[in-house]
Write a structure and sequence with these properties.
Elements (H helix, E strand, L loop, with lengths): L2 H18 L10 E5 L5 E2 L5 E6 L3 E9 L13 E3 L2 E5 L7 E11 L4 E10 L10 E3 L6 H27 L7 H30 L10 H8 L2 H22 L2 H13 L13 H20 L1 H10 L2 H34 L4 H4 L1 H32 L5 H25 L6 H12 L11 E7 L2 E8 L6 E9 L9 E8 L4 E7 L1 E3 L3 E6 L6 E12 L2 E11 L1
C-alpha cells in the first residue's frame, strides 16, 4: 500500500474512531425504584433502604448522610437480592431530612451513581437537591480505545487458532498465521490488564492517578471486568504457547476461553434471557473471529503461490465461511432484537444509530466478499496472472472495513440500549417510583395541532429527568423522528443549552439534564421533527427550585 494511501487510511480510521467514541455515553443500569422514594416524607424512620435497578449491579457504595454530609444510621452490611440492593440501618433516624447517595457498577461495567433526599416527620428541607450521574466522562475515550484494541486482539488470536484447526494452509503461509496469532494473544493479555486499570478508575471516578490506586483496582476486582480477565488472560497465554508448540488441544482450549471471556460482561451477553443472549454473542464472536483473522493469510496465499493453489485455499475458506458468516448474521439479528426491541429505535436512539452504522459496514463487507467469491476466485482458478494481485487488494480493503466494524461494535457499549430505556418507560407508565420521584413539574403545551406532555423530575437544581410525550389534536400518540430541548434562563443570561433525547416509541422521549444548577423560571423550547423537513416547536416555562 502506498504511503499516501496509508496516511489516508490512518486519517479515516482516526476520524471514525472519534465519531464512534463521541461522549454521548449514558449509564446502562437504570434505577427503577427507591424505597424511600426521592423527596418522600415518611412518618417513621425506615429500618432499611432499597434501590431496585433494571439489571443486576455491584455496589461501590450506598450511604445515608445527614444535612452536614456525615454518614448516619449505623448502616450494616449491604445485601443484594436479584436486582435490588438493601442497606440495613442499625440506628433509628431522628426526624429531619437525609440524603441517600449511591454508586453501583452495571452488568456491562458502567458505573452509575446518584443521590436524592427524603425526610422523616417533616417535608424535605430546601436545598437538599437530588443529583445523579453515569459513567465518568473523563474515561469514555480511554475506555473505548482500550475496548477496540481488546476486541481486535481477542478476535485475531481466537480466529488464528480456529483457522489453523479447521483449514489447511500452504507451508509458506502457516508460520505467518501462527506469528499473527501469538502477537495478538500477547496484545490481548496487555489489553485485559489495561481494561482493569481504566475500568477501575472509571468506577471510582478518579483522576489519572487512579489507574494505579488500590481503590480503583479493588473496584475493578468486584466487577465483571475481573471475571472476564480471569478467563481471557489464561486463554491468551495458552494460545500464545500453542501457536509455537503446535498443540491442537491447547489451540481449542485457548479459542474457547478467549470467546468465553466476552460472555460474562457487556450488555449484549448479560441481557435477559441470558442463555439466549450469551449463546448468540458466542456464535457472533466465533464467526467474526474466523473472518477477521483470515485476511493476512489469504493475502499471503493469493500473492505468494500459484493461482490454482490459491483458488483451492479460497474455495476451502469460502465453504467454511458460508456457515460461520451465516451464524454471524443470524446471531447478530437476535442480539439486535434483544437490545433494540423496535425498528423505530434504530433511527431514534443513539444506540440504534450506531447499530445502523455497523449494519451498513456489514453490508459493504458482504458485497466485497461476494465479489471475491464470484469474480476473483474463478479468475484464480483459471490461473489469471493478474488475479492474485487483485484478490490481495480486495482483501486489504475488506480488512479495513472489518476493522471499522470492530470499532462500531465497541461503540455500542457507550450508549444506553433501548431495552433499558423501555424498561424504565414501562415502570413510569405503570406508576412505579422513578429515580427522582416526588416533586417536579407536569404540564401540557400545544402548537400547530400537536401537544406535548412535559414532565420534569424532581424540578430542583442539579440532575433532572425530562419526559416528553407527543400527541395529535385528538390525543392519539405521535411518533416523532427526533426531539431536542433548548434551555434558557434569561435572568441569569443563560442560553444555548441543547439537550438531545432518547426515543422510546411510540410517543415518548427521555432526557437527563445536569445543566439546571441555578433556581429560577427556565424556558424550555421543544423542537420535535415530524419528518426530516417538518418541525414543530413548543415553548413553556418550568420552575426549578
Amino acid at each position: 500500500m502506498k504511503p499516501r494511501s496509508v496516511g489516508m487510511l490512518v486519517a479515516l480510521l482516526g476520524a471514525l474512531l472519534g465519531v464512534f467514541a463521541a461522549p454521548r455515553v449514558a449509564a446502562h443500569a437504570v434505577l427503577m425504584k427507591a424505597n424511600p422514594a426521592a423527596n418522600q416524607q415518611l412518618d417513621a424512620a425506615p429500618k432499611e433502604l432499597e434501590l431496585t435497578f433494571n439489571e443486576n449491579v455491584g455496589p461501590v457504595f450506598f450511604k445515608v448522610l445527614d444535612r452536614a454530609g456525615k454518614e448516619t444510621g449505623k448502616p450494616g452490611e449491604l445485601r443484594i437480592d436479584g436486582n435490588s440492593v438493601f442497606l440495613p440501618l442499625g440506628e433509628s433516624l431522628a426526624n429531619g431530612t437525609y440524603i441517600v447517595t449511591y454508586r453501583v457498577i452495571s452488568a456491562d461495567t458502567h458505573p452509575v451513581g446518584g443521590s436524592f433526599a427524603f425526610a422523616i416527620g417533616e417535608p424535605v428541607a430546601g436545598g437538599a437537591e437530588a443529583a445523579s450521574g453515569g459513567a465518568a466522562s473523563a474515561w469514555v475515550l480511554p475506555t473505548y480505545l482500550n475496548r477496540v484494541v481488546l476486541y481486535a486482539s481477542v478476535l485475531l488470536a481466537a480466529g488464528s487458532a480456529l483457522l489453523l484447526l479447521v483449514m489447511s494452509w500452504p507451508a509458506a503461509v502457516e508460520p505467518g498465521l501462527r506469528r499473527q496469532g501469538r502477537i495478538a494473544a500477547i496484545v490481548a493479555i496487555v489489553s485485559f490488564v489495561v481494561s482493569m486499570a481504566v475500568g477501575g478508575a472509571d468506577i471510582v471516578a478518579g483522576g489519572p492517578g487512579a489507574l494505579f490506586s488500590g481503590e480503583a483496582w479493588s473496584a475493578a476486582m468486584k466487577s465483571t471486568l475481573s471475571v472476564s480477565a480471569a478467563i481471557g488472560i489464561p486463554g491468551a497465554l495458552l494460545a500464545a504457547w500453542a501457536f509455537g508448540a503446535k498443540a491442537e488441544w491447547a489451540l481449542w482450549t485457548g479459542f474457547a476461553l478467549l470467546v468465553a471471556s466476552f460472555l460474562v460482561t457487556g450488555h449484549a451477553a448479560t441481557a435477559v434471557p441470558v442463555w439466549l443472549a450469551a449463546t448468540n454473542v458466542g456464535l457472533h464472536l466465533a464467526g467474526g473471529a474466523f473472518w477477521f483473522a483470515a485476511f493476512a493469510p489469504l493475502v499471503a496465499t493469493s500473492r505468494g503461490g500459484a493461482p490454482g493453489d490459491a483458488a483451492k485455499v479460497m474455495d476451502q475458506f469460502s465453504s467454511r465461511a458460508l456457515w460461520l458468516v451465516g451464524a454471524v448474521l443470524l446471531s447478530g439479528v437476535i442480539i439486535s432484537w434483544i437490545q433494540v426491541r423496535s425498528p423505530a429505535n434504530l433511527t431514534t436512539t443513539d444506540y440504534g444509530q450506531r447499530l445502523l452504522v455497523k449494519l451498513g459496514l456489514v453490508v459493504a463487507i458482504l458485497a466485497i466478499a461476494a465479489y471475491n467469491k464470484t469474480t476473483l476466485t474463478p479468475a484464480l482458478a483459471r490461473s489469471d496472472a493478474a488475479a492474485g494481485a487483485k484478490m490481495a487488494r480486495s482483501i486489504r480493503i475488506e480488512s479495513v472495513v472489518m476493522l471499522l466494524i470492530v470499532a462500531a461494535a465497541a461503540s455500542l457499549t457507550l450508549p444506553t440500549p433501548p431495552r433499558a430505556l423501555g424498561e424504565q418507560a414501562a415502570m413510569a407508565a405503570g406508576g412505579g417510583a422513578m429515580v427522582q420521584g416526588g416533586e417536579g413539574y407536569e404540564g401540557t403545551w400545544t402548537t400547530e395541532g400537536y401537544a406535548v406532555e412535559v414532565e420534569v423530575t424532581p424540578g430542583r437544581t442539579g440532575e433532572n429527568m425530562v419526559m416528553l410525550r407527543f400527541k395529535d389534536a385528538a390525543g392519539a400518540p405521535v411518533t416523532m423522528q427526533k426531539a431536542q430541548i433548548d434551555l434558557a434562563l434569561p435572568e441569569a443570561q443563560i442560553e444555548g443549552v441543547t439537550l438531545e433525547g432518547e426515543a422510546m416509541p411510540p410517543d415518548m422521549f427521555h432526557f437527563m439534564s445536569s445543566e439546571m444548577i441555578i433556581p429560577g423560571e427556565w424556558t424550555f423550547t421543544v423542537n420535535a421533527f415530524v419528518s426530516d423537513f417538518d418541525k414543530v416547536s413548543f415553548e413553556g416555562k418550568v420552575a426549578i427550585k
